[in-house]
Amino acid sequence: MAKFEVARRSLVFGVAGVLAAPALPRAQAPAVKLGILQPVTGALSQDGEHGRLGAELAINEINAGGGIRALGGARIEMVFGDARSNPEGGVSEVEKMQAEGVVAIVGGFASPICLAASQAASRYDLPYVVDVGVSDQIVSRGLANTFRFGPGFGVVTSAALDNLVALNDAAGKPSRTVVIVHEDGLFGSGMARLLNAELPKRGFEVLETIAHPTPARDMNNVALRIRSLRPDLVIPSSYYAEFVLLARTMQQQRIRPKGIYCVLNGAASNYRFVREFPDAANLVMDCNHWPDPRKPKTAELRQQVEAQNRFWLYNTPMNYSAVMLVADALERAGRADRAAVIQALAATDGAFTKHIMPYGPTRFVNGQNQAGAPVNTQVQNNDIKVIFPRDFADAQPVYPVTG
Amino acid sequence: MKGALPILAFAVLMGLAPLLVASNVVLNFLVFTLIIALAAQGWNLLGGYGGQYSFGHAAFFGTGAYVTAILQVRYGMNAYPAFTAGIGVAALVGLAIGFLAFRSGLRGSYFALVTLAFAEVFRVLANAAEMTGGAAGILIRLQANPANFQFAERGTFLWVALALVTLALLATLALERSRLGAQLVAVRENEAAAQALGVDVLAVKLRAITLSAAMTGAAGGLYAQYFLYLDANIAYGTWISVEALLAPIVGGAGTVFGPVLGAVILHGLGEATKSLAGSIPGIDLVIFGIVLILVVRFPPRDLPGLLRRRRRA
């Protein structure tokens, strides 16, 4: 009999509970799971760690501000995956995130990881927002689930050329001759070919194009060749380590052109280079991703990052902005449903202002944000400053470099 | 064929996986492990049975992968003939490298270094060539249709990979029982003695490296069809040369099941540690390293051997 009593009592409470439920205030909406994919082991771990940091800071900020309002204040729960610096690592993490039921994935960093991971996500119509990967193939595959907020390779290189001409014209055309130094893979060779075709049209003379392998252990011969050619400008398109080596060798040999102008180089927009080799880095220019210095949030975020004893790299603001983009889409979709989020992402417009990149009003065409654009940075007094375009700049360019 | 029963049992058990396991996480893990097992089985033919340790099986893996991808993307060929051609070209590359290395009498560490150098040369060339897409890589269009050798279900791909691994296992078993297998083992144990007994050492080695390259090339083609993206570091990178030789060394070089066992142990252990201690980045690689140190430190140098020794002790 006692057993029945207990059962009856719990039945009564149960029914009462069910009846009472709608009357209670909705205390806690279920959390929305967001996949954050970054390579935090292997060769790309520095970039991956800084990308994760940006996503984390964005998620903390959203949750502290009351979560996703349209979903009853649902908190965002991060499901982190280590892409291990290779595509198969990325794919296996996408599978895990799918099993966890994430509503979207942000990140990837390197183009190969972005390509493979977004493709794996497309099997499940799972929205994928690329944080950095610049390969133009990422958004030309017709995958409806893939979005890129930042600029692609084509946009960056043409902006780099336009900005170089504008910079040179504004300074009274001090430079005319150029030496191109490039790594001999397709990235460097492609860039060198493009520069060789485009620079003469814009009034520059290419004195010589010097190729070097990656990895390269010594840049003395390249530096000596530059010294004998005495160009006004040196345009390197190499990876981080080789460029750092070249810049140091040029500094040691006291080779001082009127400018060192990099494109998507990474070193001149990397505080590691600036801190470790301040003299070699001084006044180097780069055309790359960089957050908008005019937005107050940029300084705030940078403070948070530096308070953790971390370098301020572009990965952090780009991932912060990409997570904000997904949060914005969730607000507009009004439900944590993948198809609705894809639709909302595609319909993002200028009303999305919570990002900190120096882009105009957002507009997606085939998954690519048409407003995504690079900026020109220059290392000045141990800091990285934006020098171009002028509307975004927080410093005057030091060009031509003298002395 | 005697000894084929365990292979068929393995195939049936593994083949049941997609029916029993709904999780794509597990299926994806199994597919990748099977691809590695196939590459490793290729290495095992030459390294395990023939005693010719190659550090450059990436040369064959990458060739199989690139030919499969390039024929489809640049020449519009269907995936199946492209895959078959990939295996063929990889075998030819194996024959060519083997001819150059073995004819000059390169053995042991010299042979290992030459294979490593070939793989590196291929990597640099693939990174610079227009045809391979260079550093930007080559992307096979996603069209999930069995006619394109792409499958909507990961389970289906698992069956395809499993079929190839089973074929490789049966081929290895057949080789073990064949005249060529006996000659290969003779060459491994004592090349001079084998030659004195009338074994054509060069011909035996060339056959072995060609078969070996074909198998590893098939793994490369599978990789291309599964991930649909390649660049020079994926196709010709040292990672696959290392994977291909580690699995047989851990699982038992010169045995039919060694490579499969090694691949499952190494990757299974890695995945298990990742899910148990997921918050520590790289912990699975630490375990990977520890297993390798243990295996190399305590002969007989493979895990089944270690277990047998424990039982005897």
UniProtKB/TrEMBL annotation, chain A:
It comes from the Bacteria. Pfam families: Peripla_BP_6 (PF13458). Residues 32-375 form the Leucine-binding protein domain. The keyword Transport applies. Keywords: Amino-acid transport, Signal, Transport. One of its GO terms (biological process) is amino acid transport. InterPro entries: BCAA_transport, Leu-bd, Leu_Ile_Val-bd, Peripla_BP_I, TAT_signal. The keyword Transport applies. Gene3D superfamilies: 3.40.50.2300. Signal peptide: none annotated. Belongs to the leucine-binding protein family. This is ABC transporter substrate-binding protein. It comes from Neoroseomonas marina. The lineage of its organism: Bacteria, Pseudomonadati, Pseudomonadota, Alphaproteobacteria, Acetobacterales.
Automatic annotation (TrEMBL), chain B:
Pfam families: BPD_transp_2. It is found in: Cell membrane. It is a multi-pass membrane protein. The chain crosses the membrane at residues 53-73, 79-102, 156-175, 208-229, 249-269, 276-298. GO terms for cellular component: plasma membrane. Keywords: Cell membrane, Membrane, Transmembrane, Transmembrane helix. CDD domains: TM_PBP1_LivM_like. InterPro entries: ABC_transp_permease, LivM-like. GO terms for molecular function: branched-chain amino acid transmembrane transporter activity. The keyword Membrane applies. Its main location: membrane. This is Branched-chain amino acid ABC transporter permease. It comes from Neoroseomonas marina.
